[in-house]
Amino acid sequence: MNILFNQKIRLTLGCAALFFVSLSSSHLYTQLKTKQQTQQDQSFTFTQQDNLALLQSQISFVSNNLSDPLTSKVESFFVTQETSDEILKQYPFSSSQNLLAASPSYPVIDEFKKYNFTINGSQVVTPAKLPSSKVNFNQRDLLTVLVNTRKYFQDYASEDPDILRTGMLTTQGVTVPDVLKTLDFMIVVLKEDIANKRATRLQDPKFINSNFRVIKWTAYNPKDKKQKQLRITKYAVFTHSGSRKKTTTFNTPIYSLKDNSNNDKFYTKYTKQDVLSGIFEPGGREFGKVKSLAYLTRIGLEEALMQGTILINFTDGYRGFFNVDRNNGMSYIRGLKATAQKRYWYFREVDAIKGYGYKIDAKISIKPGVTFAGDVLNIGLGKVIVIEHTKGGRKHLQMGVMADTGGAFLPNLYQLDFLAGIFKNQKEFRQNISQLPEYATAYFLVKK
After folding, report:
1. To bridge 219 with a disulfide, which of 271, 401, 414, 446 should be the other Cys (CB 3.0-4.6 Å)?
2. Per-residue confidence at 94, pLDDT binned at 50, 70, 90?
3. 3-state SS class at 175
4. Is 37 domain-assigned?
5. How many Å is the maximal CA-CA distance in the chain?
6. Domain carrying residue 304
7. Which keywords has UniProt assigned to this entry (predicted)?
8. Cα 358–chain centre separation
């Protein structure tokens, strides 16, 4: 009896144990699935702490030569396989590991970091090869933008977690270290080629196909599912005359926020129409809250707001660049005419054309002809992009860096804005961009 009783006890306890293990496993599986879904909802980003630790361990490769990309001393060596291997040692993840970590879907977010929709990565970004045509760009200008973009990662990774996002290329296993590796390698190649006064190997599609993963970007436009090529819009810096004081001709102001505006968000209450009604002018209810930088024509203001930067020729002979700093927090409404937009930007004087940056003093100095503006949150800062179009029956390739953004790009997976140059007027601008494509096939370059 005792033996039989003990066997029954053991059987009962065994069944209970199996039930408990099964219940625990089910609970653990549910937790894991929930965690995976949460990670997807967070747009496949690393945690900020992990990314920062990773970036800090990898940011030293070219930092000693970042101050002046055109005059810094260049080591005389050829970028052989050995050199490439030395660069790769800076990065802990192999391409195969990255591909294993890839996820097939990507949740797209808007400028407020809120979920909008999900894309299937294999339908938007796919492996490819560049066609056999010379890649066009100005070597020194591209080097400048590469170096300045790389330096932004070095200097502001802790203050600007948005740059730790890889965006939709996560679906191809691309990581932030891959982006840094690509920038570093291109900087080395360009510096050496410029020092040796030769056409850079980055213009050779064979060199690119051998050394980089080429990833084709098929446009994804929720409102036009038939669009496959990217729309290539163009932006510019326009020169305008202006005055330090309000006149009958120059009667439209651009303002700068004072330092204490970081804490006092009074300016977020006012639309562009409110500002232009005179609330900051003598007699206005907010007079003294901001500093007037210049007075332009209304056309000058609208072009400055649209392009982000303006070169002002003052009536007293001074000229300077002015760049958007902070806006009133109101969204840009696509399709609404410029004068009816409620968003208003406050400006600061700068020393060059400025691109992306989390604050005005941190913005990347950029160059025309080698800079793209795009959806930084969903595509990622620092992506090297080649666009392909056909002209006169021949394929043309143009390389640039995504080092700028804008309100029209959040979210936007079907458009890039190409910085065309500095122009005196719209006529000169239109003549220049008539040589550029309206739509193009786009490729990302990622160092193997």
Report:
1. 414
2. very low
3. coil
4. no
5. 112
6. 252-312+320-347
7. Signal
8. 11
